[in-house]
Automatic annotation (TrEMBL):
Keywords: DNA-binding, Transcription, Transcription regulation. SUPFAM superfamilies: Periplasmic binding protein-like II, Winged helix' DNA-binding domain. Belongs to the LysR transcriptional regulatory family. InterPro entries: LysR_HTH_N, LysR_subst-bd, WH-like_DNA-bd_sf, WH_DNA-bd_sf. Residues 2-59 form the HTH lysR-type domain. This is LysR family transcriptional regulator.
Amino acid sequence: MLDLDRLRALNAIAEYGSVSAAAEILGITTSAVSQQIAKLERETSSQLLERSGRGVRLTDAGQLLVNHADRILTLVAEAEADLEAQRGRVIGHLRVAAFATALRGLLPHVLRDLAERYPQLDVQLFERDPRVALPHVQRGEFDLAMVQGWRNSPLPIPDGLEELHLLDDPAEIVLPAEHPLVGRPWLALAELAEERWIGSPPGDICHTWLVDSLRHGGVEPRVAHYASEYPTQLTLVAAGFGIALLPRLGQGAPHPGVVTLPVRPGLARHLYVVWRSEATRRPAVQAVVAALRRAVDTVEAMQAACAPLSNPGSAK
């Protein structure tokens, strides 16, 4: 009888082209993946992989097995969802992907909430870019994912996935505390044409959004420095090396040395949670969705309470 974990390992190698990439996706070591494949080859009395440059490729027997494995794993996921729905209990193991600011700003609240309510539910978090997370959810490698899309740069949700809008996260101009524009109630992007910007690296979804937003506002961006993490961008702004356009959730706690101002017309990103349609019946999936809704309420209340402290310019 074929082992499902070994089929998952072979499926991941077929998708990502190497043992190391499969190991990263599955959350295990490369040695464990290699062992799974070796056992699967003994079970099937077939060579399933062969070396190809620095990676591996499927043999004919491996490709034949992968064709069946995809269908088998889909049927198993549907059966597990049906059984879990019938039991009606929030138990088991879930893999949840989220982009960096959601992982930092929302998911700790979710984990604490779920641990108190459902001690038999184990939730494992993975930081993933939304564009990477979506196909993983489609294939069942993640049970849910937090993703984002901007009004001027929406993120298409593939067929077969359910989505729930959680919140709109407004973007704000972040200035050094001594900047001459501090004290204004709001700013238009066109007023910032001569500024130097701190932004995410090229290729990042947030870099694309920043460049598109500035150009739509009549500004050709001059990005002085690139940093993936928003806290690093805030530190660079505070040091006077440029200004930034950051979503409120990404800013975290009020940062000394910077002032945030609303931008007009407003910009906001949409935050969603997505999951496979057949998983809707799973009580554990719905428990995570409900916990995310509660976490959003908590974070929005905290942001409202901190707004006067983080934006002294708005009070003038």
